[in-house]
Design a protein that fits this description.
By secondary structure, the chain is α+β, with helices and mostly antiparallel strands. It has 2 domains: 115 residues, Tyrosine recombinase, N-terminal domain (DNA polymerase, domain 1), CATH 1.10.150; 198 residues, hpI Integrase, Chain A (Orthogonal Bundle). It has 14 helices and 4 strands. It has a 4-stranded antiparallel β-sheet. Strand 1 and strand 2 form a beta hairpin. Helix 11 runs antiparallel to helix 12 and helix 12 crosses helix 13.
Length: 349
């Protein structure tokens, strides 16, 4: 050790942990949640439910009054309670019917890790109880969820034509085709604006919605805002484009909003309304387990089988890591292994 090193070693003092203004675990959790102000309302609501309502509520019910008093045993007992608690609205196709799914349990564990990591960074704690070897992450299960078959997808599009209100019929048809063709997440679909769809010539110049120039070959593209406010463009087929235009001509305007999809009351379409529409459509068409994310599985699976290009699927899906894309492609059923399968845009017309 040289002279400078000895001087630094002799003068080093550990950083003092200041007294913060947080107070109770609920106050600290609210402060943590306030850092997500730029996230979507749905994401913030999920974080609030996981940490503020569930975990902090459990701490209060079990007499833990200080965040520094949380031990690995508390984390394990809380996670065990969530693991065993029955769920009335649990999805029937999950890996644990009637109870919380493994993926939801893993997300809860990740939320806890994020919260305690923030507590350490904000100087509420010296170390995180989640870093203890005594706290183990839930095991990931591999559930091979089926995408829609071609016949099921066609039934969903056809049955949508039987609704009584013409405007809603146009709207729901555009939604189903966008979900099947572009593989959108629910939040991405609901965030679309009336000017999110564009028509481009092959030369590359862009025109907003309007009559296509017959002298030039045109393509239709959808601007999507995904997770983390990341934007991407996905090409849209002619059938889907025409359905979107048909809806926009009869769209009920929403006060103060340019949302592409609106309700009959003239408000932006809400997530629960979209979820209910898809569920009801599945019942009408006789398609079991009809939920929003299954359309995304179908679109990405068909795109891969048509192109065999996982990087292309990753770009269309808006994934930041190809490993995530691979999880979708692991769920391909036996009936999708035939080479004659084509993308939904080709056989839905």
């Amino acid at each position: 050790m040289n002279k400078n090193q000895r001087r630094k070693a002799s003068t080093f003092q550990p950083r003092a942990i200041p007294v913060r203004w947080g107070g109770t675990p609920r106050d600290i959790a609210e402060e943590w949640l306030s850092g997500y102000y730029s996230y979507s309302r749905r994401t913030i609501a999920l974080y609030r439910e996981a940490i503020v309502e569930k975990f902090v509520g459990w701490l209060e019910a079990n007499g833990v009054e200080e965040i520094a008093d949380v031990r690995p045993a508390h984390i394990n007992e809380f996670m065990q309670g969530e693991f065993e608690r029955p769920r009335k609205k649990a999805r029937a196709d999950g890996d644990r019917p009637g109870q919380i799914s493994t993926s939801s349990l893993m997300r809860l564990h990740q939320n806890l890790r994020s919260f305690f990591k923030w507590c350490v960074a904000s100087e509420y704690l010296l170390s995180s109880p989640m870093d203890s070897p005594a706290v183990r992450a839930p095991k990931r299960s591999t559930v091979l969820r089926q995408a829609f078959t071609r016949e099921e997808a066609q039934r969903l599009v056809r049955w949508n034509s039987y609704k009584g209100i013409r405007a809603l019929r146009y709207r729901d048809r555009a939604i189903i085709l966008l979900l099947l063709y572009c593989g959108l997440r629910a939040g991405e679909l609901l965030s679309l604006q009336v000017d999110s769809i564009e028509t481009r010539t092959r030369a590359g110049n862009v025109r907003l919605i309007g009559p296509a120039d017959g002298s030039k070959q045109t393509e239709h593209w959808l601007k999507i805002r995904g997770k983390g406010q990341k934007e991407r463009f996905v090409r849209v087929g002619d059938t889907t484009y025409k359905s979107v235009i048909a809806w926009l001509r009869v769209r009920m305007p929403a006060t103060g909003s340019d949302a592409m999809f609106t309700s009959i009351q003239g408000t932006p379409l809400a997530y629960h309304a979209l979820q209910k529409m898809v569920h009801n459509l599945g019942e009408y068409a006789g398609v079991e387990d009809c939920f929003i994310h299954r359309f995304r599985h179908t679109a990405l699976t068909e795109l891969y089988l048509e192109s065999t290009n996982i990087e292309l699927v990753k770009m269309v899906a808006g994934h930041s890591d190809v490993v995530t894309t691979g999880r979708y492609l692991r769920r391909v059923g036996v009936q999708y292994q035939q080479s004659e399968y084509r993308t939904p845009g080709e056989w839905l017309a």
